[in-house]
Amino acid sequence: MIITLDAKRRLTVPAGLAPASPGEYFDAHFDAEEDTLIFRRLPAKENWLAVLKACPISADDVPPRRSPPARRRKL
After folding, report:
1. Between vectors from CA 6 to CA 17 and to CA 1, what angle results, nearest 5°?
2. How far apart are CA 40 and CA 1, in angstroms?
3. How far apart are CA 69 and CA 43, in angstroms?
4. Do the beta carbons of residue 46 and residue 53 sit within 8 Å?
5. CB-hemisphere CA count at 13 Å for 64?
6. Can you tell me the distance from the alpha carbon of 9 to that of 14, in angstroms, rounded to the nearest whole number?
7. What predicted TM-score, i.e. pTM, was given to this entire model?
8. Kind and range of the H or E run holding 48
């Protein structure tokens, strides 16, 4: 089956190919080596702690902010 990208850069997947309902979440990434788009359905209720643990970059490796946080202005 061929799916065409529209002018707003959206892909429409037929219901017969992958049954899904509006509001479901999918993880999408591009594999440059294979020149393919890969979509993976995410669970309806994702545990934020599991997502944080699956993050490939640890919080210690995140670079510091370039500017200090905004200060509260006195009125």
Report:
1. 30
2. 18
3. 35
4. no
5. 4
6. 16
7. 0.47
8. helix 48-54
Residue 27, strand partner residues? 40
Tokens of 34: 């294979």
Measured between alpha carbons, how far is 41 from 66 in angstroms, rounded to an integer?
Answer: 35
Residue 7's pLDDT band (boundaries 50, 70, 90)? Answer: very high
> In 16-32, which positions are buried (b, 16+ CB within 10 angstroms) versus exposed (e)?
eeeeeeeeeeeeeeeee
Total count of residues recorded for the chain: 75
- Give me the long-range contacts of 43-52 (CB less than 8 A, separation at least 24): none
